[in-house]
Design brief:
Layout lengths: L9 E6 L2 H9 L8 E4 L7 E4 L1 H4 L9 H7 L4 E3 L3 H16 L5 E5 L2 E5 L10 H16 L3 E6 L2 H8 L7 E3 L5 H6 L11 H9 L5 H5 L3 H8 L2 H8 L17 E11 L2 H22 L3 E10 L4 E7 L7 H13 L8 E11 L2 H4 L9
Parallel strand pairs: 2-4, 7-8
Antiparallel strand pairs: 1-6, 1-7, 2-3, 5-6, 9-12, 10-11, 10-12
Helix pairs in contact: 4-5, 10-11, 12-13
Subcellular location: Cytoplasm
Protein name: DNA polymerase IV
GO molecular function: DNA-directed DNA polymerase activity
Length: about 350
């Protein structure tokens, strides 16, 4: 039984400009230059940007034409998702030496609960430092870490010393840390929501904490209770390790809300690649394709399409996903999360009840 004063030790590990850093690692001639992973052709979109490119205002999910206007000397390289996934597997293997409680958020970030860890190390700060050093030694890539007593604060803390740093928010510091932040810095508050909060006179964590939960619920729906809690540095969500499911799915939460059709397609492509790679490796196929969409105000919807047999190819999966996305337009609000899932699995492993999951 967990004591009332039980305090978790949670680490949020986040790779620094992951796709772009892998490309700069593997291609020394690109180091120190503004780099975008993606395509500069047609309606191309930036999948990732190096820190050199970010200084010009280039960001992921930005149309390539816009990125080039901001940084005319921007270099584009095509994405190599198979390489990124292999590096991600290396990093996850390092995590697994310290704790089985690993909750991947994407290929380049994860939460770790190290309250009770496999090495018996009392200090979560020391564990984060060791893991970052191991990642650098084994992959030549840097990672940042946030350490705190809940997931919300750990996520905030990992952004505080980027790149290649770490930051701790201790239990006695949580409330003060949140009070001084702009609401736009909160994980889960995108630009659209931040603007709505500003219109209500809510600019900082302290302003948000001063609002009654009824008002927040009135203006932000179910998300209002979440905002009410995080303004008090409260987040009781546990770190949930990979769970087996009767479907194959991949999803990603974006740093900024997506509003344009090319942005949504670019955000979906890595998810489709992830799901289809597992299909190829496992031999499993699914009859139902489901698109999951979470909007800026946390409203969540799904759109599905089922066929007689399993989806036969990645090309077909891409076409179905594109058609499902087209059905969302015109958008009334930004999109903060996209997910792709295949279900109604059609092989012996599925009928035997084996559950499968992927986390992008």
């Amino acid at each position: 039984m967990v004591a009332a004063d039980f305090i978790r030790k949670i680490i949020h590990l986040d790779m620094d400009a992951f796709y772009a850093s892998v490309e700069q690692r593997d291609h020394p001639e690109l180091r120190g230059k503004p780099l975008a992973v993606g395509s500069a052709q047609g309606r191309g979109v930036v999948a990732a940007a190096s820190y050199e490119a970010r200084q010009y205002g280039v960001r992921s999910a930005m149309p390539s034409a816009t990125a080039l206007r901001k940084c005319p000397e921007l270099l584009f390289v095509p994405p190599r998702f198979s390489v990124y996934k292999e590096v991600s597997r290396q990093i996850r293997a390092i995590f697994a030496e310290y704790t089985p409680l690993i909750e991947p958020v994407s290929l380049d970030e994860a939460y770790l609960d190290v309250t009770e860890n496999l090495k018996g190390i009392a200090s979560a700060t020391q564990i984060a430092r060791e893991i970052r050093a191991r990642i650098l030694a084994e992959t030549s890539l840097t990672a940042s870490a946030g350490i705190s007593y809940n997931k919300f604060l750990a996520k905030l803390a990992s952004d505080y010393r980027k790149p290649n740093g770490q930051f701790v928010v201790r239990p006695e510091q949580g409330l003060g840390f949140v009070e001084g932040l702009a609401v736009g810095q909160f994980h889960g508050v995108g630009p659209v929501t931040a603007a709505r909060m500003n219109q209500l006179g809510i600019f900082t964590g302290a302003d948000l904490r001063a609002q009654p939960v009824e008002l927040l619920h009135q203006h932000f729906g179910k998300a209002g209770r979440y905002y009410h809690a995080i303004a008090r540095a409260e987040d009781h969500r546990p770190v949930v390790a990979d769970r087996l499911r009767k479907s194959m799915g991949s999803e990603n939460t974006f740093a900024e809300d997506l509003t344009q059709f090319p942005e949504l397609l670019a955000g979906l492509q890595p998810l489709i690649e992830d799901v289809w790679e597992y299909c190829q490796r496992s031999g499993i196929r699914g009859r139902t394709v489901t698109l999951k969409v979470k909007f800026a105000d946390f409203q969540q919807i799904t759109r599905s399409r089922s066929g007689v047999g399993g989806v036969p190819s990645q090309t077909v999966l891409e076409r179905i996903c594109r058609e499902l996305v087209e059905g969302l337009f015109p958008l009334e609000k930004g999109v903060r999360l996209l997910g792709v899932t295949l279900s109604n699995l059609d092989n012996e492993q599925a009928t035997a009840g084996r559950q499968l999951t992927l986390n992008f």
